[in-house]
Automatic annotation (TrEMBL):
InterPro entries: Cro/C1-type_HTH, Cupin_2, Lambda_DNA-bd_dom_sf, RmlC-like_jellyroll, RmlC_Cupin_sf, TransReg_Diox_bact_type. Keywords: DNA-binding. It comes from Microbacterium paludicola. CDD domains: cupin_XRE_C (cd02209), HTH_XRE (cd00093). Residues 18-72 form the HTH cro/C1-type domain. This is Transcriptional regulator with XRE-family HTH domain.
Amino acid sequence: MEPQRAEPDLPASIGRRLRALRTRTGRSLASVAQEMGISASALSQIETGAMQPSVHRLVELVGVLGAPVSVIFDDHAVAVIPDADAPGELNEPVPGVFVARVGTETTAHLGGGVTYRRLTPVPISGVEHFESTYPPGASSSADGGLLVHAGYESGLVVTGTLTFEFADGEVELGPGESLSFAASRPHRVANRTDSVAVATWLTVVGSTGPVDGATGR
């Protein structure tokens, strides 16, 4: 029986990567906290792993630092190909073909019990592809705040039911249903049910929207 890979202290790992990113950009703790509208103490707790950020807070923070959400999974400020020889995590059975086996992926645990898991073996420039899991009653922001970030987003609900809140209305989706929208549109994701909900997400950072004529309008 192969020994199982020990799972790292994920909140601390996320915080460490966020702190490294902040220092590489030359930003002080106080200046970033001020731009986010939170205290320097709260930001420090996120960076040390003492506090798990919500989805809203995490995306807001990486946005202020000019980085993609994928920085929470890798020790890289930008998307690069990691070491393909890393034991137990990634291999290259065919030159240029990267494979991540079941059980070797890293899951980011965020506030409210929400988890994010990257669905690509390696980071891909300009694209974010994740799976998110929302426990019963969980949401992307506990205070009801709406999220805004760069890119065009598509989400597919795999199991359960999720409600997508916008400033001018809301959409409820069940298994197999999907939606697409500009991530610059203020939004919030919530699981208002008593069952776990799972969705996959594709965010194209440089996209402005659907292909002309694709909506049939």
